Amino acid sequence: GKDMTLKEQNAVIDKLHKQVFDLKLRCFFLDQKLQSTSEEGMDSLRQENVDLKVQLAGAKKEIKILKRQIKELK
C-alpha cells in the first residue's frame, strides 16, 4: 500500500504497456511457428506414411515370392 506519485504511476503503466506488447509479439511469433511447424510436421508424416506403405507392399510381394519358393521346394 505505498502511495505512488503520478510520475511513478506513469512509469509503471509504461512498463506494463511494453510488457503487454512484448507478450503479444511473442504470442504472434509462436503462433506463426506453430502453424508452420504443424504443416511441415503433417507433410513429413504424410511422406513417412507413403514410404511405409511402399515398404509394406514390397514386403507383401516378397512374402508371396518366398511362399511360392517354399511350395516348390516341398
TrEMBL record:
Swiss-Prot/TrEMBL keywords: Coiled coil, Cytoplasm
GO cellular component, one term: microtubule organizing center
Coiled-coil ranges from the UniProt annotation: 42-69
Family matches, as InterPro entries: Cnn_1N
Keyword field contains Coiled coil: yes
Organism of provenance: Terfezia boudieri ATCC MYA-4762
Name of the protein in question: Centrosomin N-terminal motif 1 domain-containing protein
Localization per Swiss-Prot or TrEMBL: Cytoplasm
Stretches assigned to the Centrosomin N-terminal motif domain: 5-73
Main localisation: cytoplasm
